[in-house]
Amino acid sequence: MKCPRCLSALNEVDIKEGNLNIKVDQCTSCKGVWFDAGELDMIDNIVEPVFLETRKIPSKYDQLTPLDCPYCDLHPMMEKAQHPRDEEVIMDYCDTCGGVWLDAGELEAIQRENWWTSLYNLIKKMS
Ligand SMILES: [Zn+2]
Ligand SMILES: [Zn+2]
Q: Distances from the Cα of 102 to the Cαs of 14, 19, 33, 40, 105, in angstroms?
């Protein structure tokens, strides 16, 4: 798969935490992360950030740029979802496959606040 943001290659990255062991795809260049459907749910229990990005969340302009789904064959355009508690965090999710794209920094922001549950519910509600 290719990064929807910068079209660099995505690298499989292991997230290990307790009994949990999932693979996500991380961009080798911009460090954004792709979660297949359900992976965001599984990662819900991770409290400690597994991989931290120190870079800032992309600018509003960058975040609002439409991105194509890297997973689906037809590369449908992903939907935007703004977190209700922090309008700086805008995620992209695919209506077709249920995958979620987080830019570098967004993952950190969400993990720091342990927002996984509300985030996941938000996506469910909007999809
Ligand atoms: Zn990238
Ligand atoms: Zn998709």
A: 16, 24, 5, 11, 8
